[in-house]
Amino acid sequence: MSDELEVARSAAAAMERADAAGRGVGVRLLDVAPGRARVALTVEERHVNGHGICHGGYLFFLADAALAYASNSYGTSAVAAGADITFLRPVRLGAELVAEAVERARSGRSGLYDVTVRAGDDVVAEFRGRTRQVPGLAPPG
C-alpha cells in the first residue's frame, strides 16, 4: 500500500471515530483515497420528509460527509468553506444512497470537490464543495 493511501485511510479512520453526527444520521464510509471518498446512507423513516421522500438536508449531509473525507485525505485538517447542491430526483424510503467525492482542484489551502449522489444507477443530486485547510485544528489521524 502506498504511503498516500495509508495517510488517507488513517485520517478517515480517525474522523470516522470522532464523527458523532455522521453516526447519528447513519452515514457509512465505503472507501477513501487521496482526494476521493465514497460514503453511503440507507434512507430510513427518520430521513423522510412530509412528502414521503428523503429530506434534502440529508442528501446535503451525505454529500458533505464525502467532501470531508476526501478533503482531509492528505492528513491536513480541512473544513467546508461553502457548498452548493442541485437536487435532481426524489429519493424514496429504503433507497441506498452512495455519494462519491472527487477532487477537482487544490491550491494552497483551498480545495474544490464535486460530489455525485446516486440511488442505484440514478443520479439524485450533484454537489460542489469548496474547502479550506485550517491551521490550528488537530490534523485527522
TrEMBL record:
This is Thioesterase domain-containing protein. CDD domains: PaaI_thioesterase (cd03443). Residues 51-124 form the Thioesterase domain. NCBIfam families: PaaD, unchar_dom_1. It comes from Pseudonocardia zijingensis. Keywords: Hydrolase. The keyword Hydrolase applies. Pfam families: 4HBT.
